[in-house]
Every structure is written in C-alpha cells, then in structure tokens.
Amino acid sequence: MQNEFLFAGFGGQGVMFAGQLLAYAAMDAGLEVTWIPSYGPEMRGGTAHCIVVVSDKAIGSPIVRQPTIAIIFNNPSFIKYAPQVKSEGILIFNETLISARTDRSDITTLAVPATQMAEKLGNTRLTNVLLLGAALRAVPVIPVEAVRGALETHLPARHRDLLPLNLQALEAGVSYRMPTSVTP
Amino acid sequence: MSRTLLKGNVAIAEAAVRAGLQAYFGYPITPQTELLEYLASRMVELDRVFLQAESEVAAINMVYGAACSGVRAMTSSSSPGFSLMQEGLSYIAASDVPCVVVDVMRGGPGLGNIQPSQADYFQVTRSAGHGDYHPIVLAPASVQEAIDFTTLAFELAERYRHLVILAADGQIGQMMEPAELPPMQSARETRPEWALSGANGRKKNVITSLHMQPEDEEAFNQKIQRRLAKIRQVEQRSVEYWTNDAELLVIGYGTAGRIAYTAVERAREMGMKVGLLRPQTLWPFPEERISELADEIQSCLVVEMNAGQMIEDVRLATSGQVPIEFFGRMGGMIPMPDEILNAIEASYARITRPVAHHANGVRG
Amino acid sequence: MVTLIEDVPATMQVVYQRPESLSCVSTHYCPGCTHGIAHRLLAEALDELGLRDRTILVAPVGCSVFAYNYFEVDGCEAAHGRAPAMATGLKRVQPDRIVVTYQGDGDLVSIGAAEILHAAARGENITTIFVNNAVYGMTGGQMAPTTLLGQKTTSSPFGRNVSSSGYPIRMSELLSQLDGTAYIVRRSLHDVAHIRKAKKAIVTALKAQMHGLGFSMVELLSSCPTNWGIPADQALNWIAENMLPYYPVGDYKVHPEVTTL
Description:
The complex is a heterotrimer of chains A (184), B (364) and C (261). Chain B is of the alpha/beta class.
C-alpha cells in the first residue's frame, strides 16, 4: 500500500518540517518513505512544497504527479494543487487562510480551521503539526504515537520549548471532527 | 542495524567521513551546499581538514595537493562548479593519485538552474578534463546507494590509484530517505610509499603529469589505458528488474532510472513484457550485460534527464541489434512516471513480432 | 658534466660545494638566467635550516616547470597558477612539513592571482619564492603582468602601453596589505650584494613557516636575457636600471615575531 502526501504552503509555515515529521514517523513505524522538497527561489517566500511517499515496499519514483493526499496551507497552493489531487484522494486544507474552494466531487475535501485552532493554543506556528494530525486522522497510515515520538526526537533545538505545545497541537489535529465534505 | 532519515547530500558527507575522509575542500553551489555545510562542522569535530576554497578551481587543486600526500581527500560541486574543476581533474588523473569528486548535477548549460539534471553525462564519462582517460563514474539512485557508492568510491580510487566521480543529481542530493550508514573508519595513519611527505631516509618522491618526450607520454598513456581496460573488465555494475522475459528493455540511471522503475512496474501490471536495467557505473558502462540482453530483447528505451547522452553507449553495447528509442526531460525537469509509461507503451507498440515465430512461441 | 670529488685531501679545504638539497644534475635554464641562482639560494637555505628531508616543493608552469628535478626534496607539478592551492592541500594535511611554492610572474601574478591572494589572506603557512623577470619565459617572451611600461615583448611589439594593457602589478606591495601575511619582501639577483640579501630573506621566510607565523613570500627580481634579447651581463644591468625603480627592493611586511627569529 502506497500513500503519496503533498504538503504545500508559504515558506515559513513549517511545510517542510511537517513532511519531515511524517517521514521520521513512517521510518520509525518500519515503513519505506521518501521526502523530497521543492528547493530554490521558492524557499524565500512564495510557495514551498514537499512530497512524502509512504509505502510498505521499496519506493520507485519519489515524485508524483497526482498525490493521494494533499495538505494545503495557503490560498495560492490550494489553487495550484487542488486540481492535481488524485481521483478518490483527500484534500485537507487550512480553512483559516484559504478562501478558495474546489468543485471537484471525485475527492474528499476536508476543511480544518488550523491557524485559528493554533492561535487558541497560543502560537500560529503550530498550524503545520495540527494539519498533520488532522491528515493522520483522515488517513491513518501511521500510528499517531510514531509522530509523537518523531516530534520528541526531531523538533529543532531552538524550538525545544515548544514541544508540549506541539504535542497538544498534534492531539488537537487528530481529534478534530471534520465536516466530511465542504461544498463549494 | 538502525536506519536514519538522511538527506542525500548529508548522507554522502557522513559516508565520506566514515570512509576515513581526511581532507575536504569545497565551494558553495546549489544543490550540493549541504554537503559542504555538514562537513564544515563534522570535519572540525574530528580534527580533520575542512577548508572552504576561494573557487572550485582552487578547491580541486587543494584536493590534488592533499591527495598527493596520500590521504583520503574529496571535493564536491554541481555542474557549473564541476566544469571549473576540469583542469584539476585531468592533472589528478595524470598523476595516479586517488581522489573522489562528487557532482550533484543541475540544469544547464550555462548557469542553467538549480533543479535536478543528468546533463553532465558526457562530461563525467567522456573526459572530465583534457586528455585520454575516463574517470570511474558511480551513479546512485537512492540515499542508501549514495552512501554505499561513497564508500566504494574511496575503495576504487585507492585500488586503481584513479579518479572516481560520484555523479548524483539534485534530487538525490536534496531527497531524504531512511538509510543505513557504515561503521566509522578512523583516518588512516600510514601513508602510501609514493606519497609526498618529505624525503626522509628514502629517495625523493615526485608527482608530475609532465612528460616532455612524446615516447614517455605515450608510455604513460598506455599505462592508463591498461588500467582502464582492467577497470572495464571487472567494475561494470548495474541492477536489473523484470529482464528475464523482457521484450522491451528500459535503461536509465540515477533518479531517471528510479522513476522508470515505477513506470516499468506499472507496464508489467498492464501485461507488457518490459524490463529495466539501471546502470550503477556510468564508466565503465555496463556494456557486457546490455550486450547479452540485446540478444533477448526486441527493443530498447533509454530514459534520462538530458537530451539522450547515454544513447551512444547503449548503441555501442547493443551493436545495432535492436532499435533504440529515447525519452528524456531537460533543463531541470524531472520525468514523471506516467510520461515514461506513455513512452514505454509507444515503444512497446512499435515492436514488430514475426507472426510465424509467434505462433510457435519462439522469439525472433 | 658534473664531477664529484668524493675524498677531499687533508691539505685542502672545501669552501664551496653543491648543497645537499640541490640535485646533482644540469638544469635546462638558458645562459645568464638567474633561476639557477634562485635555486641554489633556496637549496642552501633548506640545508642550513635542516629542512631537506621534510620539505615538499610545488613547481609551477613556466620556465621552472622542472624545478622538482633540481631539488633533492619531494616535489610535484601544479597546474598553471595553482601552486598555492596545491600547497594548501599538502600543508593542511601535514602541517609539520615545510611546503614551498616556486612561481614565476605569469604563473603567480596573472593566471594564479586568485590562488596566491587567498593563500596569503588565509595566512596559509607556506613559503613562496616568486621569480619576477617581467616576461613570460617558457612560451617565448610574451608580455607578463609585471612587464614594464614601454617594454617590448613578442605580444607587446610596440612596447607595453597603458591604454591597452594597464599598469604592471607590484605583487609584494599588494600582498603586504593582507593580514594573513607574515613576511613579504622583494630582493634582487642582479649583483652579489643583492644575492646575499636574497639568501638571508629566503632563510627568514622559511623560519617564519617553521614557526607557524603565516604566509611568507620572497620576490626575486630576475633576468631573462633570452627573451629580453640582450647579453647576459647587460641583462643584470637591465634589472638594476629598469626593474629596480619600478619594483624597489625592500621589506613590505614583517610580522613582529619574524624580527625575533
């Protein structure tokens, strides 16, 4: 079974780190995984994205044209990537910052007011972990416990003080009961 | 044995450290810079030599100097910077000093861009500097292979006293994957007898690439050619998937080879008899296996992230026995699995199967 | 033909002999060229300081391309202008060895300007012997970055002219501005008095390296009668009359600790 995650948003929203957390957790769960970033001018503003392929067998191509799960952080990324989600796939998006909607009926669209929820927890920078939690609820390919472990091990030293909040954000994401679909 | 999630550039750097790298000289260039940054702290921690040079020209010549003293030395760069190293590479190759150089290829020509590419294929396999020689060229397709080939690069460099190039592309450099690192080797204490270390109690050692008499220069060239012939005989490396009954053989290396794997897997699911051969050494090219397979296949599809530079080698290896088709993307574009699959379908459809033979179940 | 006298009779005294660091071979240098003097001075200095068996010489591209054949020390041949980079590699991995580059003006000031500048700026603990004869010798007398204004060469047949070729570069003065340098001096090889001073400077430069004080360079004003197109004796005068005014001998950078050596 192979799942292909696309994380996309503004540089600075923690898009890359959310993907890496998933990759660490997948590795710790004994799965095969690849993480590839967009790199270059996009790193300095603009949209940044990474693709994480998680599989129970050796992974061929680490790049995908149509991800099975897209986790979208901002409006420009929504406009760019919503049409690319694989048919039958899942689109999870940050409802707080995204006004755009899609009329695709062949995918499941899940809205999460992630930045708003993160703000309530005390820091909008928790948006990324919150969205990852929500994605794992929708696509439970990896035990949440593995992500918790990955956070504990890999949260950068300079953000160490934010570990308890990150764990709370993950929890909030996982337990968020999403409306099953958002109509345009 | 534990796996670590590693970025390709960092994995190569740590693998080099564990292979006993004693001196690194480099210059920043995307998409290989993490390699330099990682070694900037790691080498210093281990009390080994790290130096950011003023240019790639200086970096390769610093490597040359360090290698002349008999230590394991390395530099890394990406296409435009690698071009600047050509002169030094040629001197190194002409001096019998073992050396490892990493080229994390990016889109070109010119300044090009920083996206993944394989457009340096000719540069790494054909010349890598002026004169008659080939470096040994290793092409990893995963982070694990990047690690394994870094270790191998130092071994081959010393076994043959030859230049070894690790030709990765931007995607291998930037990608993260779980991989296993080899155990740590301490930096070697002893020096080979040819090393420049001061003529203390022995005759002086001289390392030069200058042979003013053409007879001497020819003799030296013949020595290189004998060495290359040996390497060509024993160091060809490739991996194969689904080749035992393949009618169409896809050939691709590095990232292109890996993406082709997914395409070939899907083609198999669709019932097509397609196989994949992924060269791991670009020089020596795995011509022996491809030549053998040429007797069994009907057609060949080369997949690369360039304009089709490997076609020449495939054509030589197959001696015109089968048609050779090509699919590639250029300028930093990465081929998508579905694009390669389309190319496979088209090539597969063009295979002509003699009707009579088919009825007998015998391939022509 | 070189003949060695193995046993010196007791009634005789050796007053002059080939330094141990100098190989027992004839050089390929033209008559009247001062490379031979420069070689001998470096070899004498290595002998006197007892450095022969731990020295590595990096030869340049230029007339002294075969320098490694003329010294009884480990040696190698750098690409054109890259001797300081190669020396950096050699020195960094074996800091207890003495590493010397021997470079001409085309090699050091033109194609290798970046490498020498950065080696000096880093305070690379190496010694450079810089032979300045204001012309490309090996390729047959073309204009060098140190060719004097008005000087005729095969590539400046009407004399070097500022409007097209700019001004000659004074490398010692330039490098002396860099904080990484320990000892930067210019000497001349045109007469005995100057040659003696040049020898002393080479000894001091090597001592600076032995004490880890940073980059040291001795620039030697030298002759090239062949490419200047004048007889050997006149060539020495030419140095005094034409080169000295533009390239004054002197100490351009002397690290305070160097004075105590």
